[in-house]
């Protein structure tokens, strides 16, 4: 269920939350679904300590088998959204609360909530957090201070990289190393057109000099010679450029495009790198794209 199916925020809840945001004197607002509406179901004022000190008071207002939402004031003007859905709750209640949380945060203002927690028990069961990749949020087994502090540590810890992210990091590292080497030597280069950059074949040079409007020049790198070579030339429309580029290997493309008939053409540069390409080739091509190819038409 969602806001479109009839479950929305009641005026009483909107008013209670607005007042709590303004006064900063309310620590927790409990919210329940009643008669197809989200309504306030009790509040707890801020204590003399901080958020962690007040957290145990949730044990008094939550029920073991009944889901609820908690709007929790943390520090400054930040709020934490807690979706409390016990494992022992009725299946229908689980579905209703799971599908209505988006309507609640959207109505109150998503930007007001710095974090989301899904809790499955109000009592201390396990002190660990589980990552829910489908929701990009955190599932917490209990609502104790210890569990919340573990959650905060989890947020602050570096996230493990996927295989794809590790490959991208390797490419970025190669780019940084290459950039430092070039800048240290005081060299400026473009992908083509700079004498300090890579050489290109005579065949490629002829193709670039003959680059007419509506023509695509496809360029590849010979890794054994570190030389730019001509892979193909095609006369295509601008919309046809993506389909004319290689689908299984990295490549550069230079396309001459005249926006209007008789107008001076623009040179459009493209760089394609399929995810199936070997990492070493991705690194080689990526490093060479750091500089703009703006001088190519002058050579």
Automatic annotation (TrEMBL):
Q: Name one GO biological process term.
A: barbed-end actin filament capping
Please give the superkingdom of this protein's source. Eukaryota
Q: Which residues form the ADF-H domain?
A: 4-135, 193-299
Sorted keywords for this record are: Actin-binding, Cytoplasm, Cytoskeleton, Repeat
Q: SMART domains annotated for this entry? A: ADF (SM00102)
Q: Does the keyword DNA-binding apply?
A: no
Q: Which Pfam families match?
A: Cofilin_ADF
| Entry's Gene Ontology cellular component terms | actin filament; cytoplasm
Extract the InterPro entries matched here.
ADF-H, ADF-H/Gelsolin-like_dom_sf, Twinfilin
Q: Does the keyword Amino-acid biosynthesis apply?
A: no
Cell location: Cytoplasm, Cytoskeleton
What Gene Ontology molecular function terms does this protein carry?
Answer: actin filament binding; actin monomer binding
Coiled-coil region(s): none
Q: What is its main location?
A: cytoplasm
Its family remark reads:
Belongs to the actin-binding proteins ADF family. Twinfilin subfamily.
Q: Partners and quaternary state?
A: Interacts with G-actin; ADP-actin form.
Q: What is this protein called?
A: Cofilin/tropomyosin-type actin-binding domain-containing protein
Source organism of the structure:
Thanatephorus cucumeris (strain AG1-IA) (Rice sheath blight fungus)
């Amino acid at each position: 269920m969602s806001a479109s199916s009839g479950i929305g925020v009641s005026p009483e809840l909107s008013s209670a939350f607005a007042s709590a945001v303004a006064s900063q004197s309310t620590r927790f607002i409990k919210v329940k679904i009643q008669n197809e509406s989200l309504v306030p179901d009790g509040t707890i004022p801020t204590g003399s300590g901080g958020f962690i000190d007040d957290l145990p008071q949730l044990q008094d207002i939550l029920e073991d088998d009944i889901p609820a939402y908690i709007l929790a004031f943390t520090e400054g003007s930040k709020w934490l959204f807690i979706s409390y859905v016990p494992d022992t709750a009725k299946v229908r209640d689980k579905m209703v609360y799971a599908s209505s949380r988006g309507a609640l945060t959207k109505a109150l203002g998503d930007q007001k909530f710095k974090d989301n927690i899904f809790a499955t028990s109000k009592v201390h069961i396990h002190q660990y957090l589980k990552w829910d990749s489908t929701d990009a949020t955190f599932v917490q087994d209990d609502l104790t201070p210890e569990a919340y502090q573990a959650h905060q540590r989890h947020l602050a810890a570096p996230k493990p990289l996927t295989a794809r992210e590790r490959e991208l990091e390797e490419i970025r590292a190669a780019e940084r190393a290459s950039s430092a080497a070039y800048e240290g030597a005081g060299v400026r280069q473009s992908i083509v057109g700079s004498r300090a950059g890579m050489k290109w074949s005579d065949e490629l040079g002829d193709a670039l000099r003959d680059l007419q409007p509506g023509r695509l020049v496809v360029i590849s790198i010979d890794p054994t010679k570190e030389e730019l070579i001509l892979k193909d030339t095609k006369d295509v429309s601008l919309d046809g450029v993506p389909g004319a580029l290689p689908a299984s290997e990295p490549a550069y493309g230079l396309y001459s495009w005249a926006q209007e008939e008789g107008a001076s053409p623009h040179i459009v540069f493209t760089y394609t790198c399929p995810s199936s390409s070997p990492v070493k080739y991705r690194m080689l091509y990526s490093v060479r794209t750091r500089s703009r190819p703006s001088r190519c038409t002058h050579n």
